[in-house]
Amino acid sequence: EIDFNLAAIYVSDAQYNRNVYFDTLPQAVRLYMLYNHWALKVLLYFFMLVNLSLAIFEDPAVYPLPIWATMLVEILCLLIFTIRLIHYAKVILRDKFWKDPKNICIIVILTLTLVDMIIYGALKAANYYGVRWSRVLRPLLLVNVTEGRQLRRAFRSIRNALPQIFYVFMLFMFSILIFSLMALKLLGKRGLTNINGTPYFTSYLEIMFDLYVLVTTANSPDVMMPAYNANFFFAVFFIVYILINTYIFMSVFLAVVYNSYKKYLKEEVRQLVRAKRHKMVRAFGVLQEQREEGGEPVVTQASWNQLVRLVQPNLSNAHRELLWSVSDDKNQGVAFVQLADLLNIEIITIKSRPHPLQSLCPSLYQSAPSKLLCQLVQHRAFVMVYDLIILVNAVFIGLDEENPMIANSEWVFLALYILEILLKLYVFEPRVFFSKHSFWNWFDTIIVISALIATIINSVMKSSSHFSSRQILDIVFILRVLRLIRVVDSIKRFRIIINTLIRIGPAILTFGQLIIVVYYIFAMVGMELFKGKVTFYEQSSTNLAKAYCGNPLLNGTDFAKLNYCKNNFNNVVSSFILLVELTVVNQWHDILYGFATVTHISARIFFVLFHIIVVIVILNIFVAFVLEAFFVEYSVDKSDLQTSLERKIEELELAVAQYVTLQRVVSGGPIEWVG
Amino acid sequence: EIDFNLAAIYVSDAQYNRNVYFDTLPQAVRLYMLYNHWALKVLLYFFMLVNLSLAIFEDPAVYPLPIWATMLVEILCLLIFTIRLIHYAKVILRDKFWKDPKNICIIVILTLTLVDMIIYGALKAANYYGVRWSRVLRPLLLVNVTEGRQLRRAFRSIRNALPQIFYVFMLFMFSILIFSLMALKLLGKRGLTNINGTPYFTSYLEIMFDLYVLVTTANSPDVMMPAYNANFFFAVFFIVYILINTYIFMSVFLAVVYNSYKKYLKEEVRQLVRAKRHKMVRAFGVLQEQREEGGEPVVTQASWNQLVRLVQPNLSNAHRELLWSVSDDKNQGVAFVQLADLLNIEIITIKSRPHPLQSLCPSLYQSAPSKLLCQLVQHRAFVMVYDLIILVNAVFIGLDEENPMIANSEWVFLALYILEILLKLYVFEPRVFFSKHSFWNWFDTIIVISALIATIINSVMKSSSHFSSRQILDIVFILRVLRLIRVVDSIKRFRIIINTLIRIGPAILTFGQLIIVVYYIFAMVGMELFKGKVTFYEQSSTNLAKAYCGNPLLNGTDFAKLNYCKNNFNNVVSSFILLVELTVVNQWHDILYGFATVTHISARIFFVLFHIIVVIVILNIFVAFVLEAFFVEYSVDKSDLQTSLERKIEELELAVAQYVTLQRVVSGGPIEWVG
Fold first, then answer.
1. If contacts are CB pairs under 8 Å, which of residues 24-43 in chain B contact chain A?
2. Where is the Ion transport domain (chains A, B) (predicted)?
3. How high is the pLDDT of residue A650?
4. Which domains are delineated in chain A?
């Protein structure tokens, strides 16, 4: 009566680095297995997305919906989150539940949201002005759910870097203060004027702000020009300023963030490894049997098989036997602990079975012309010919598609690409061609087939109604251009870089979540502060207010002159796009001045805060992360486990895949194995 | 008859990492010692500076001088460089001289310069148009002289990173090409217009260029606005573009540069250590004596002393004895090899001698009030009171100095600062107070005394002629503000950061040289291409051409509107300032469009090339360098040698300095020793 469920849970927790102190009673274990079911997770994230998307429909809305509709959906979301939390509470030990700050956070967020909804509903019903302040809490759910492990780690790495950043930031601010004072003394009394005739560098606060903006380089060289025009020695002042504050301090910020990131990463990995070992030891404890009196406790192959079948049901028998042969060491306890890592090493079991056509009509497939064809397709020249075709295609795409010759050439190229895929399918076993890691094969096929469909739809529409849909045409164009990307795969150096980027992709997605959390909060606050202050008029509008974005205060400002009216906080989509522009930093001071003009000078605080949090802290963490990820990937050595697995595969006299040229698998990633 | 000169040369070559294959004949050795004399080096660098500064006086000149004058000075410079080279040729082995590419480089540069001068002189004499093209070669002398070791290393680290950068750059350009094609297809036919009414995104080359500029963020969000105004989905295109090309690719550039920098640094350090050991072994070989038949060869203390006296004449006897006690190991050969490193470890020999006042009038200095005063000055509160004074001073500086009360308060503050220095000099031994590493003491004293002198001159001028010189006043203001910086030294966290920055300072200077070499070349080329195309008119000028920088082609362009007329290549100083602006990147496209308008569209190549070389390559190396330097300094562990020296100091029962609080020495740097 071994509790296989319990052991399997330990192993899969170890495999996915889950640290949940679940109850070990059989019923709780079953509940926990349900809790980890992928469908429930997808459901949770779906409602998370719905909850976040509500901002599109709530005032200020992109597509307005009545309040009761959005409220109803929100209540549904809250309900789902509550159920999920109750499920979690049933799974884990009661005292652990109440000690975990993230559970408390979720409860607080849900309660506050409910309270806010009631207040807001009541205020609206009584026709009062209300603010849905609890909307800023929504993205915090993403961080606090059990599945938000990676995201929490990213936030933790920021929190860890903060004390260090703080001191450098203080010094940096001190430097700005000193330089501002110097600028005031040197330039304030010279009677210089800005380009628009206003006095130059006369107010200390304004100078401080201008110099802060100069650190971001957004107002360079304009801020320097009046002084430089007066005397070129003043340029030296600004050059020294930029050198110290933009180059040295910004590098020091990166250095400090990167340093704390590396230090923290090491500690984190160490903890993860410890927790993993701990769980595997527990799993071993559950499975072990005393084979003989006084002997070492062991795990039999039968229980081992049952365990692995439970943990990873879709593993082939051959693969499982391979893993057992690696695990069945003299010191079984130690070998068992590796199982979680072993399961995480991807092994592509390339079935060395023959091509389906060979079974269907062997005489034809084995004939001399057919063999010649196979050789041709596998030849280097084949790849080069198609690279050439892609280049010619690129030129044709660049030419005017109104020309009927050019428009028809598209069919030729489409036919050529489809021919390529068919030829490859003729030569290579389809299951190998479309294996999970053949990124470029999938990419090619999807792009070419989509392009075919879109082109057909387009030409059908054109011939039937003499009118081609702009949207369809856009999609066709995008697909055509995307097809060209494939050419990079032919150059080995490029492939290495691209593969590195693809591999750090998932981790970049974690950063994407982090950015969305921060953006969402700023978007909600920004919308409350600035909604409706700036209006965008369509190109075709003849409204005179168009020249000043519908707000007379903006008349003659750079904001209006640069036609920035659409950069506003009037709905959540505009807000997000505006926040991206603020992250890019350039011209952010014009945007900021615009919003400060239509509201109050203190509106600057919002923008400066955004700059400090997103650009100085988060973007530096992002760069630190890309740097570290790149170094790790560049110096990719296979782990000991991977090598021992490979040795085992060879020992077992299983030929290591020879299909490397065909495979186009992500290099250095999974192990190939002809099973 | 030991050749002490030869041994000393080996040791000092090892100490300063010189790799010169000099002739070991006594005469050549003496010549080599002369070659290494500091005065000759200073002379060389002085004439290097003169040679580079000629650009200020040559056409297009800041201060024009007749051609014969600059030519005469240049010939003098060339003569000095030739003499220096001949001196070097006499020192080293003949075949080594001709095998060394840097000697060949110098000869080629000198010859080409001479040829160019003759041609130019002849052309000018015949009143033809001539170009002084050899001016771009001038800064290359900085790189190729024997002393330019650090600079060559910096260039080598760039050269080593190039192959890696090249592939990423190709991929990056490919990405721009693909996005440009997509932009052309998506946006080219929509009839959109830029803010000035020109068609938007219709030419492939223009799109490519605009998107390249977008990577530098200089035209964000303006380049996106027309498309975004038409449909907000197009913003997605630009956001994806920025994400991939600005954030990911730029991080990858940094990662690649940093990676190759680190790898190369390790290799470089390994080679340096090997070369150093090799030289020390040779020095040992020269000095060793066979004390007894068949015994180990040893270096006697007498020869050792003579050697060290030759290498470092200003070392105190106590210090030399300390070093001997560290070196006099059983395994003398190994210990001897460390000598070069030992000499490089700075030891501050704090003479524990009494305060001069104590010797002069001991009764007064030892009296109770005097002792109380000493205690007061050494108390924490003393520092805090002065920090407070500095803060109050900052407020006073910020106020209007026209107010007589404020103007007079300056005398009070000056008196307070002088009092502080005098008090400290009363308490601490002056030689300790002004020791080499007491950065802040030196800083304080110099600033305060300069401020005193400048303020006196200013008030004398004011009272005598009722007119204060603007320049003197500017200096007074700068000194006053600089005085405030001292406050950061009171906060420990700040001190650590500042000290780190001070310590990486010398290496940043090497980068400064590198930047000057590159800037100088670009300035010379830029001046030939763009001189006189744009004219700057003084503020007071009433010339109508002022509105378009004296060039009708610029009428109505952003360049003229933004008042960028002084951003020109009309002389070497303007050129350098303009190149700094281009390095900062912001608005570089407006500057570039300006110069392309007044010359030819291909002028863009000059600016893009500058961007690629300086911003993508050199600045990334700079950041990589700051990162690495910061990590090394942050994780500063004393080397084994330093610890063994410290242990020895303690063993010898010499008290380790107790003056740490007083010292304010660069933390973690030199060892203090009360000898």
1. none
2. 40-263, 380-633
3. 62
4. 21-145 (1.20.120), 163-344 (no CATH), 356-490 (1.20.120.350), 504-619 (no CATH)
